[in-house]
Amino acid sequence: MGDALKWLVLSVVMLFQASTAVLWAAEAPNPISAVPGAPSFSVSQSELQDLQVRLDRIKQQVSQANNLSLMVGLQDSVQLYINDIDTLQSTLLPEQKQLQAQLDVLGPVSPVEVGAEKSEIAMQRADLSEQKRRIDASLTTLAALRASAAGLIPQIAGIRRSLLESEVTLRSGSILGPEFWSPLFSPRKDDRQRLSEFVEQAQDALAVAWQPGKRLATVLLVVLALAIWSWGRRVADRGLTWLCIHRMPEGRLRRSSLALASVIATVLATALAMQLLFYALTRQLPLTPMLQNFSDEFEKLIYLCVMITGLSRALLSTEHPSWRLPTISDSVAHALEPFPRIVACTLLVLVGLAQISNVSGMSASAILLGRGVIALVVTVLFAMLFRRANKARRAVVVAGDSPEASTTLAGLIYSAATVAMIISLFALLIGYVSLARFITYELVWGFLVLCGFYLLIQLLKDSFEYLFSAKSASGKALKQLLGIGDTRLEQISIVLSGVGRAALLLLAIISMFVGGVGVTLGQLFSQVVAILGGDGLRKLNVVPAHLLNAVLALLIGIYLIRSLRRWLDNEFLPKTNMDPGMCASLSTLFANIGYALVILLTLSSLGIQWTNLAWIVSALSVGIGFGLQEIVKNFVSGLILLTERPVKVGDLISISGVEGDIRRINVRATEIQLSDRSIVIVPNSQLISQNLRNVTLGGSAQGVASLELTFPLDIDPEQVKNLLYDTYCEHETILDKPAPMVRFSKLSPEGITLTVTGYVSSPRIVAATKSDLLFEILKRLGAAGIALATPAPTV
């Protein structure tokens, strides 16, 4: 019955497979006949010409740009252009591969093709070759355009640096002089005219949006944008807060998630409100170039101010002190609470006016006036903020509350900010207005970077702490999956958290130098990628797509080595005739070689070419020659110990006054266990270069149990000799061959000294044997009435 059931099931399965194959064959089109009519994506010649014209226009704008804001916008245009080309290339590459695969199926042209079938194949081959030729030509042109556009990015960066240097080193009038304030009280005629043109264009744009028949829609859109900006932000904040409280685990992770949720709600609500407001004003007619430039710059400014208020509200958390991430007191948090909003509103007004002067093309004196006022007001606000914070901290100390824990990093940030404010004020007084404005912007940017990355670092730390916690569900799953304990799980959490925080700190440092006020997240990301993916790293041929392969190769390699080592230690080596020391040496040597191969495999998976590691080898050679020579010497000595085996695990050795059993031979040092179970770590080089006594080398070493006793002069030497000899012979651990012996060692006024010697099977039992012999000898001497000699008194 069982065999019949098996045959029935097997028949059903085979019938199902056969029917499925028939259906697939019936539904699948003929690949040869379907090729000529298959749609193929390609880039037309007119599209390539448009891309070339677009690139030429960007180059012309770069050559004519004369201020930093225009250069930032052109850099965005170049990056968008590169992204468009990448999109086209990513679309063409699959087509190219498909056509090549189809041509490979058809094969090369045969010498003679006759008959209808062969002529059809020839036509298909010609059609496919023509399609592939067009796609190859398009890809070649796109690659050339992309390379030309990519070359603009470092050129724009160089022009920006030169413009910045010329601005910050330009000396104008001091803020105490009347010439500095003259554009405010007696503006020039051309400045008034340019401002009037900007106002007229703005009025025209508003008039178009406010024309009859469109007013109701404009009002509704503006009201909706304002509602989202104010009421919608609160709703989003409460919704994300509810999610964090009810979906995130209780503890530090929930606290950091609440802070991040507050920032996300603020930014999302502002972005949606800005899009609605922009649509309300431009849905009928696009903005003029002047208004468009102002709109782009003012949008960046709004996001900057929103980030200032959002991060400060998330980190200070005056409404919920238990959610606060930094270790600051409530009084200090309440003292600092109004300043971020004041700074944000001040920047929104003053920088917005300065942007109007920039886009309208006002005179240099008007632009310098705006920069000076921004630098002066913002520097004064930061000085007031620091003074308020110090006053609140002193009040906490006077009140007897526990003061805040100060760190070295906080002290360095405070000192750097103080020095920057002093330099900014001094630059304003001596006439370097642009330098003061640059320092002020860097202060604001530094505040954003430090607060933002502090929040990310805390979130990363808390996430790893929860994910690898032995009490969490994820931690329990990892323990069961990997078979590790709580200590190892905690170590993994600490290592991953440390690596993540180090990476974020590196990104923060890079962002401090490459970013600034008015830089978008996309620009910042592209600049960070440009730095991290520079020529030095690009030569290593590290491709992001290979990172997953490298990580998998590392994890799988380590798992295989550990599994094979356990198999060697527990199954294979115990079944051989090798001694335990040899087994331990082979296991350690296998693990060392395996880990080295895994590292090489990981680097190969990353795509790193060994010819590109010459600079790393050169740096390591210098380090080895100076600081790493001891480590390398011990490593090589460890390999010699594992291969030549002058000593092995389990040997009893004596070196430099240290005597004990070798417990383990590591890569750098050897562990020696003493008789009291303590461990002495001896570098491997000492075992090679110094005189070493291996007591158990060869496995046939015997121990010597020797005692030296002094008796009075009036004893019978023969009686004592026989007593000692019999005691040794009757002891179970004393060997018969060589036989024990008693020697007359010394005759002195203090007495007669006899030395009795016997051999035991192992040096490890000498101490225990001597102890047993002494007990037995003293017992027999007492029974025979023989006493040991008494030492002469010392005068």
TrEMBL record:
Family: Belongs to the MscS (TC 1.A.23) family.
Transmembrane segments: 216-236, 257-281, 339-356, 362-386, 407-432, 438-457, 502-522, 542-561, 582-601, 613-632
Superkingdom assignment: Bacteria
Membrane topology: Multi-pass membrane protein
Subcellular location: Cell membrane
Cleavable signal peptide: 1-25
Originating organism: Pseudomonas gregormendelii
All residue ranges annotated as the Mechanosensitive ion channel transmembrane helices 2/3 domain in the record: 588-629
Stored Gene3D superfamilies: 1.10.287.1260, 2.30.30.60, 3.30.70.100
Residues covered by the Mechanosensitive ion channel MscS C-terminal domain: 710-787
InterPro entries: DUF3772 (IPR022249), LSM_dom_sf (IPR010920), MS_channel_1st (IPR049142), MS_channel_C (IPR049278), MscS-like_channel (IPR052702), MscS_beta-dom_sf (IPR023408), MscS_channel_2nd (IPR006685), MscS_channel_C_sf (IPR011066)
Coiled-coil parts of chain: 41-68
Assigned keywords, A-Z: Cell membrane, Coiled coil, Membrane, Signal, Transmembrane, Transmembrane helix
Name of the protein: Mechanosensitive ion channel family protein
Any matching Pfam family: DUF3772
Mechanosensitive ion channel MscS domain ranges (all copies): 631-696
Keyword Repeat in annotation: no
Domain DUF3772: 144-200
PANTHER family according to UniProt: MINICONDUCTANCE MECHANOSENSITIVE CHANNEL MSCM, POTASSIUM CHANNEL RELATED
